[in-house]
Write a structure and sequence with these properties.
This protein is of the alpha+beta class. The protein folds into two domains: about 1-40; about 40-95, Irregular (HU Protein, Chain A). It is about 45% helix and about 30% strand. The protein is built from three helices and five strands. The protein has helices at about 5-15, 20-40, 85-95, and strands at about 45, 50-55, 60, 70, 75-80. It has a three-stranded antiparallel β-sheet. A two-stranded antiparallel sheet has the order 3-4. β1 and β2 (about 50-55) form a beta hairpin. It is elongated, with a radius of gyration of 19 Å.
């Protein structure tokens, strides 16, 4: 599912809301999650999962073409851990 499909689905499920208002709501939710992660905060949506930021330390890598050593800087990467409820629902659906 892509963002526009989510917005359409929510608009159809909530006919009392204007489509543009649903767009703003979804956009705001994503912006807030992004802002929290940029601050280094963890974002937990109970039953769904948790978003956090992991740090990958600097290291020496290799250029695959030449084999030459290359310095790779420290990186901050997004990480998502599924919640227990989501994991159980997925396993119940695919286990049947």
């Amino acid at each position: 599912m892509i963002k526009s499909e989510l917005i359409t689905l929510l608009s159809e499920a909530n006919p009392h809301l204007l489509h543009r208002d649903v767009e703003r709501i979804v956009g705001t939710v994503f912006e807030e999650i992004t802002a929290a992660m940029c601050r280094g905060d963890r974002v937990e949506l109970r039953g769904f999962g948790a978003f956090s930021v992991k740090t990958r330390p600097a290291r020496t890598g290799r250029n695959p073409r030449t084999g030459e050593a290359v310095a790779v800087e420290e990186k901050h990467v997004p990480y998502f851990k599924t919640g227990k409820d989501l994991r159980e629902q997925l396993n119940a659906q695919h286990g049947s």
